[in-house]
Amino acid sequence: MNKAKSLLGGIALSVALATSALAAGVELNASSTGLAMQGYDPVAYFTVGEPTKGDYRITTLHNDAMYRFASEENKAEFEKNPEAYLPAYGGYCAFGTAMGFKFDGDPNYWKIVDDVLYLNLSKDIQERWEGDVPGFIERAEVQWDEIEDVAPADLQN
Q1: Dist CA 57 CA 55 (whole Å)
Q2: For 120, how many CA atoms within 13 A lie in the half-sphere containing its CB?
Q3: What is the mean pLDDT of the chain?
Q4: Is CB count within 10 Å lower at the N or C end of the chain?
Q5: Origin, by domain of life (predicted)?
Q6: What band does 31 get if pLDDT is binned at 50, 70 and 90?
Q7: How many CB atoms lie within 10 A of CB 104?
Q8: Strand 55-62 relative to strand 65-69, pairing
Q9: How many domains does the chain have?
Q10: Closest C-alpha among 63, 13, 57 to residue 34
């Protein structure tokens, strides 16, 4: 675990400095403008089974974050039950959460497990996470309780 933390710690710093999608809030991964999931439609993962960019004209605000949708139908589904479509851990990387960090989740690296959407940081991280999905989810659940209200940068110190 220390080896993984060390690896992710180095990645975290570079990603945090290189990306503009740092959390607007603490428990939610959104851009500085409040855009969640880099503008991808959270409902589309469940309906079409792939990342789908949302339309900037079809949006809704949820927990101070702006979500975009590919269709009015997807927006309506989300508004009926947002919790069914929101990514786990506020949209932060599931593997990073398991290691006690908050890295941006990339909407292109995802998996639905037991009707929950999980995002990961990159292809390599997604592959590592898929090596023990149940174990990493279990660890992430414990870690999330401790880090949910902590700013991403504060976890790297």
Answers
A1: 5
A2: 21
A3: 86
A4: C
A5: Bacteria
A6: confident
A7: 27
A8: antiparallel
A9: 1
A10: 63
What type of residue sits at position 54? Answer: G
Type of residue numbered 143: Q
Is 113 within 8 Å of 133 (Cβ atoms)? yes
- Average of pLDDT values for 59-74? 95
**Contact (CB, 8 A) for 101 and 86:** no
DSSP-assigned letter for residue 82: G
Q: For residues 35 and 44, is the Cβ–Cβ distance under 8 A?
A: no
**Phi then psi dihedrals of residue 55, to 5 deg:** -90, 130
- Give the predicted TM-score (pTM) of the model: 0.83
Per DSSP, what are the bridge partners of residue 89?
none
Nearest to 92 by CA among 109, 79, 77, 76: 109
Look-up of token digits 């880099």: 38
DSSP 28: S
Distance separating alpha carbons of residues 142 and 80, to the nearest angstrom: 29
**Pick from 65, 63, 56, 61: nearest CA to 30:** 65
